[in-house]
Inverse folding.
C-alpha cells in the first residue's frame, strides 16, 4: 500500500483507496435500503433497462448492463443523455427501468434525463453518494451508496461502492451471500499490491505517454475505468478496448512503444483474452497482466466472476496514483478538473 | 481530392473514398429492398431496439441508436455480444428489434448473437455488404448496403453506405426526400477538402502521436469513426469522447501537445460543443474544427442534422489517408489487420 503523509501529493486518493474494504463492509451492513429498492424494482417487472451516467459512473453503468443482461436475463442499453437533452426525445418508456448513476447527483444532463424518463413512464432509480441531490430527488426510487465524502477528484471508493450497490440492486438475494466476501477480498487485493510492486510497475511506465487497457465481458468496465484513472491522474493517453474490438482496427497502432494492461482474472472474461494476448505477443507489445500473481494480483479466489470487477480495479487505482506521483504530478488535484462536473 | 496513382500507398483507400457519392446514389436508387424491410419492421411494432456490431460498424450502430431514440422515439441500446457468446445470456426479447451490422457478415460473435436473439424472440435484421454471408442468412430480414467490394482494410464507403441504409431502414418515408441530397453533398464535401488543404492539416499532425476527436449527439459516432481511421491508418493513439464525457475526466490529459479535432457542423450537436471548445481554449489545446469553412469544411447546407453524419466523416477519412502517407505508411495495408476480423 501507498502510505503518503497527509498533505503530500496523492494523500487524499491514497486514503480513499485504502478505505474501500470498509466502505464495502459498511454498505453491506446497511443494505436494507437496497433490498427494499430491489423489491420495488422487481414488483414493477421491467422488461428493458436503460442506464444513464457520465465519467467514472458510466463504467459502473456498463457493469450494471452486464449484470442485467447476464444475471437478470433482460435486454439493456446505456442511455445517451443528449437524445433527451439536445434533441428532446420523449420515447414511450412503459415497462422500462431507467437507472441513473452519479456520485454527486448534480450533473444537469442526468437530472433532466431522469425527469424526462419519469414523465415518459419509466420506473426511475437514482444511485448516488448524495441522497439529497437533485438527481436523487428527481427519481421515484433513490439509493445511497454510503461511501462517505470523497475528496480526491479521481473517484475510487465511490466507484467500487457503486458497483456493489448496483449488484445488490439488480442481482437479487443470491448476491448477498457472495458479496459478504468482498471486504476481505478487497483488503487482500490491496495488500497484495504493495508499495514496492506498484512502484516497479509505475517506474516501467514513467516515461510512457500512450497506453492501452483491455478486458472482455465483466472486466471490460474495469478496463474503461482503469484507463480513465490513468488519464485523470497521470495525463496518459490511455485507451480502453474490449479484447474483441481491439482486434477490429486499433491493434494497428500497438507496437513495442505502446504498453498494454490486460485484465486476465480467472473466469470466462480472462479466458476470452487468450487470443488477444497471442496477437499482442505477435506484434511485440509489452503486456502487464492484472489478475495473475506474476502481474498485479487480484484476490479473486472464491468470488464468482460477476463480483471480481469490484476488487480488480484496485491495482489500477494504485498504479494511477503512484504513476502520477512518479511523474511529479498531484493526483488529488488534476489539472482542468473539479469534483462536480456540470454538463448539459 | 487525393489522387494517388494506382498501386501507390493509399490508392485503394483514396479510390473508395472518392466513390462515395456514387455508392450513396446507387443505394438510393435501389432502395426498394430497404423500404420493404422497413415495412416489415414497422409491422412488428418493436418497443425496444438492440444493435450489435464491432469496429467501424459499431459506429454505424451508434448512429442508428440516435436515429431510433430521436426519430422513432423508441428506447435503444448497443448489445454486448459477450453477454451472449461468453456468458450464455438468453433474455426474453419479445417486442425487441435486434439489428446486427457488419461489412463482411462473418464475425462469429455477431453470427452467434444473431442466432440467440432470434431464438429469444427478437425480430432480427442484418445490415451487411455481403448478402450471402452467415450473418445475413441467420437473420429474419437481411438488407444489402450495395457498396460494392471494399478492398482497402480501412472501411470508408461501407461506413457511409451503412449509415444511409440504417437511416432509410429506421427513419421511414421522411428520410427519402432529404436523403436525395446526399450524393451531391458528399461530392461537394470531398471537393471542398482539396489535396492542398488536407495536406496542410496532415503536415500539422505529422509528428503527433496522440490526438482527441470530440463531438456530441449525432456527431459523436463521427468522432468515434474518425478516431478509428486515425488509429488504423496512421497509428495515432486517437481517442474519441462525447463533448460531455470529455469534461468528466479526460480533459486533464489535454495540453498543447494533444491536438483536438472538434465536430462543429451546424445544428444542435455543433452548438452543444461551444462550452467544450471554451474549456479546450482555456487549457491551451490546438483545435481543428470539422464543419466550418475555416477548418475542414462539410457541405451540410440544406441537410437536416440527422443526415449530416453521412457526409461529415469524409474530411476525416481524407485526413487519415493523407496523414498515413505523410508518415510513410501504407493506409491500404495497416500492420496487424486484415479485412475480415474474426472474434468470438
Amino acid at each position: 500500500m501507498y502510505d503518503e503523509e497527509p498533505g503530500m501529493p496523492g494523500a487524499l486518493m491514497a486514503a480513499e483507496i485504502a478505505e474501500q474494504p470498509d466502505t464495502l463492509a459498511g454498505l453491506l451492513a446497511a443494505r436494507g435500503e437496497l433490498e427494499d429498492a430491489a423489491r420495488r424494482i422487481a414488483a414493477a417487472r421491467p422488461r428493458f433497462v436503460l442506464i444513464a451516467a457520465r465519467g467514472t459512473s458510466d463504467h459502473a453503468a456498463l457493469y450494471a448492463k452486464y449484470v442485467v443482461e447476464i444475471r437478470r436475463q433482460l435486454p439493456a442499453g446505456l442511455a445517451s443523455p443528449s437524445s433527451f437533452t439536445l434533441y428532446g426525445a420523449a420515447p414511450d418508456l412503459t415497462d422500462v427501468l431507467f437507472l441513473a448513476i452519479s456520485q454527486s447527483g448534480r450533473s444537469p444532463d442526468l437530472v433532466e434525463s431522469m425527469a424526462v424518463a419519469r414523465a415518459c413512464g419509466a420506473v426511475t432509480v437514482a444511485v448516488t453518494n448524495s441522497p439529497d441531490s437533485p438527481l436523487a430527488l428527481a427519481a421515484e426510487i433513490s439509493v445511497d451508496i454510503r461511501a462517505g465524502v470523497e475528496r480526491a477528484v479521481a473517484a475510487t471508493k465511490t466507484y467500487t461502492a457503486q458497483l456493489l450497490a448496483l449488484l445488490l440492486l439488480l442481482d437479487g438475494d443470491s448476491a448477498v451471500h457472495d458479496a459478504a466476501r468482498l471486504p476481505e477480498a478487497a483488503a487482500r487485493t490491496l495488500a497484495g499490491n504493495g508499495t514496492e510492486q506498484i512502484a516497479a510497475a509505475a517506474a516501467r511506465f514513467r516515461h510512457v505517454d500512450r497506453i492501452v487497457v483491455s478486458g472482455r465481458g465483466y472486466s471490460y468496465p474495469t478496463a474503461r475505468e482503469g484507463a480513465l484513472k490513468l488519464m485523470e491522474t497521470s495525463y496518459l493517453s490511455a485507451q480502453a478496448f474490449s479484447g474483441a474490438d481491439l482486434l477490429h482496427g486499433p491493434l494497428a497502432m500497438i507496437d513495442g512503444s505502446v504498453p498494454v494492461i490486460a485484465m486476465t482474472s480467472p473466469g470466462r472474461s480472462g479466458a476470452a483474452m487468450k487470443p488477444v494476448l497471442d496477437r499482442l505477443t505477435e506484434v511485440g507489445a509489452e503486456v502487464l497482466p492484472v489478475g495473475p500473481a506474476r502481474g498485479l494480483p487480484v484476490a479473486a479466489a472464491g468470488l464468482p466472476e460477476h463480483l471480481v470487477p469490484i476488487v480488480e480495479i484496485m491495482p489500477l487505482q494504485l498504479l494511477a496514483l503512484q504513476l502520477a506521483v512518479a511523474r511529479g504530478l498531484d493526483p488529488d488535484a488534476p489539472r482542468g478538473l473539479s469534483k462536480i462536473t456540470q454538463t448539459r
